[in-house]
Each structure stands twice: as C-alpha cells, then as structure tokens.
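Chapter review. Work through the record for Glycerophosphoryl diester phosphodiesterase membrane domain-containing protein before attempting the end-of-chapter questions.
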Amino acid sequence: MEKYGIFVRQKNIKVSNSIMEEKKEMDEGLFKSRSYLSCLNEGLKLPTRHILSLLRFLYPSLIAGAVVMGLWGVFFNQITVALTRWMAASEPVVLSFPLFTLIILSVLSLLADSFYMGNVMTAVSRFAAAGAWPALRFGEAKREIFNASLRALTCTLVAVVVFSLLIVPVTLWLGAGNVWVTVVSYILLLALGVPYCMVIMDYMLGERRDFWCSLKRMKDGYQYWGAFFIILFCGGLIMGVLAAVSWLPAGILAYAGHASLMGLLEGDATDLPSYVPALVVFFFMLASVIANVFSWLTLFPLSYLYGSVEARKQEKASFEEEERRLQGLQ
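Structure tokens for Glycerophosphoryl diester phosphodiesterase membrane domain-containing protein:
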C-alpha cells in the first residue's frame, strides 16, 4: 500500500511538472528572440494545441471561403470548356459570360481569402497582446476582424498589382509559353515576395496602421531573408503537399466533368453519373476548408519570426540606450 502511495505521488508530480512546463511554454508569447527553427517549431505547435479554439473562432471565414469555392465548382466546367475552345479556335470566340463569371469569382475569392487571413491574424494579434492563448469569440472581435481583413486585402492587392506590372511586360516580350517567364516569376518571388512577408506581418501585427510605414520594413525582410525563406519553404512544402492531397478528389472529378462536357459538345455520349456535379461542388468546398486550415503551417511560423525580429530590435535598442547612458556617466 505504501509503495502504491509513493507511485501515485510520483505520478502526480510528473503530471504536475508536465502541466507546468506546457503552461510555461504556452505563456512565452510571440515577442521573444528565437532561432528560425524555434519559430517554425513553435508556429507548428501553437495551432495544434488550440485547434478547437481556432476552428470555433475561424468558422465564419472558413464557411465564406468554402461557399466561394463551391461557386467555382458550379461554374468550373463552363469556364474551362470555354477557355479550351477559345484557345483551340481558329476564329474569334465570344467569352463574355465565362469571362464575366471568372472575374466575379476571382473578386469573391480575393475577398474571402482576405477575410480568412484577417480572422487568423486577429487571433495571432490577441495572442501576442496577451502573452498567452486568449479566449477567442468571433462575435466580440467583429470590428477587429473587419479592420484586419481590410489590411489583408490591401497587402494582397499591392502584391498582385506590383507582380502584374513586372511580369506582364516580360510575358508580352517573351511569350506566354516561354520557360523564361516562369524563371523570371520565381526570381521576382524570391527577390520581392520573401521580404514582403515582413511588411505583411508588420502591417497585420505591428502598431503601425499605415501601409506605407510598414513598407519600410522591407529592409528588415532583406536582413532576415534567409530565415523567412526557410520558414516559407519548410512550412509551404508541408502545406503544399497536404493541400494537394486534399484537392486530389476534387481535381479528378472536375477533370472528369470537363472531359464529359467537351465530349457532349462534340456529339459524343456520356456515361458520367448525374450526381458528379454535386460531388464536384462538395469536394471543392471540403478541399477549401482543409487547405485553409493547412495555411496555418506558414502563417503562425511567420508570425513567430516577426515576433522574434521585433524582440531582437527591442533588445538592441535597449542595449544601445544603456550603452549611451553609461558613456554619459563617465
């Protein structure tokens, strides 16, 4: 009996220590100097520990993204078939409805993605302010989420406009099918896209509410380019593989529907079941939710890296101030 009591006490002590260590780990907060590997590790663990809390907080934006992606599933075959026939046609083909639909769906996707990113970054911002994982309720944070979504939309629009202004002339010069267009695109992403992540994080999480002030942080993005690249590569690689797997059923069904519709237009019979279009919409919506959840694998590590950069700058500023104070005393 005595041995059993000792065993129980030891087990309770171990459990208590484990809980204390986990709480200490969780209470470290966002703004702390870390290595980029530690940022990646913490960024992967934080949403995993609080996945239910995050899903309850993010469900409106997840649903919005799923609805928009469901609309893509509804019009996917019409758009792809129209574009295929347009590219293969020897005479002009009218694309008014498919083009209009494509533009509307692209705008809705941009708004839904901005809403989702604003929703996620609001959770990260509250975590950064509290130093520990906060109680998240969507209803109480509507205004904050709305403002964060507008900031996310601004960041996305600037990125799209700048990239388009740079890549469109190259495409017109070299030709759309030229491999060098792809090479130039990757170079632009590495040269501008990687450090631009610092601007996005500062605009979403920092005290600045002016995009042009946050744009000055590009220099910090270049200074920590290697860390940003490693986190984007590692997190993006995992996210890309998982997202590709989640989109596989939707892609197979969508291609089957596309091929079937092309055959019908050429006069061939189809044996595709009538419920396949509904399955396409369902799997588009499901894949959207799963892919958005997997985006945490980059958003949270990048947030930790931003917090680490800010902590290092603060430590450096404090050290320089203390050094000046000591020099003044001499």
